[in-house]
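Quick check before the chapter quiz. The format below is the same one you will see on the exam, so make sure you can read both the input and the output lines.
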Amino acid sequence: MSLRSWNVVLLALLAVLVSTAGARAQFVAGGGFALSRVGDDFEDPEWAYQFNTPKSSADIDKQGRGPLGRSLNGRWHEGERGQPDVIRRVETPAGGLPGSTGALLIATRNSGIPGVNTRESQQDDLVMTVNARTGGYIPVTQWPSVVVRVYVPEFDQWEPRDGSSFAFRATVRGTKPGERESEPYWPGIFLQHSRSRGGESSAYFLVRASERGGDYRGPAVTPGWWTLGMGFSPDGRIHYFASEGIDNLTIDDRIAVHYSYGFRCEKFRNAFFDVFNANNGRTWSTGWVIDDPTLYVASERYAERIDSRGNAPRRR
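Here is the expected output.
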């Protein structure tokens, strides 16, 4: 091959690398094609959830207590820690997405092991069913991302307790440098409540996690609607987004990007939501409302294959 030919090849490779780096730098959760077979808009007035109590506590004491709870539309199911005590379609709070008439309220009182009050913070999980409806894990080569709108209530409606109150999380698999076997891990965005000595409340996001696995404080949170997102790029990083309001996310809304826990993310399994409370048998968690959780992928062909039994993919 002549020197000129080698130069042409090298320039082409450089263009690909620059293009890929640019795509990574501008990756925004919510780009690409929305999958109709997963997620929910809660617009069906008959939306309902079958609890199948007592709830699971498999993540605590290995007791699954099946069958697990599930929504009648097959898009949601109980997590290993157990489902929230309230999972109910409600009227969309003011200021929500245009045209939205329904959203989902989640709250809990008897978290943790059924019948056991530890008087320490416990959590319940509601899982957005993904892998069972898509046929398996979604590889990060598809640039998967999840976006959800969350209504943050006024502080006088929060459970009077410091610490985690709500979390938007994902189940993924990845590999650490020098290791061959992939492992599951659970990154996410938490909403933390804090009260001053004078009793004044404030809240902020907590990002999980940095390369070393530590949580760290993100932007402050104010009452009202917020848009949260997580994206998973082919280089194995996780991108975290938070924006006040209901507008689509932009690159300016990215609050963190990490090889979380030191893993290179390889596959996305599902998204889920945590609600936390004091687990004292009396105190209810803060009531959290979510709307339009949606999963996106980069390829229209891939989306069409998954959605072949549902609606066509929607381009953003």
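If your answer matched, good. Helices lie at 3-25, 58-61, 131-134, 300-306.
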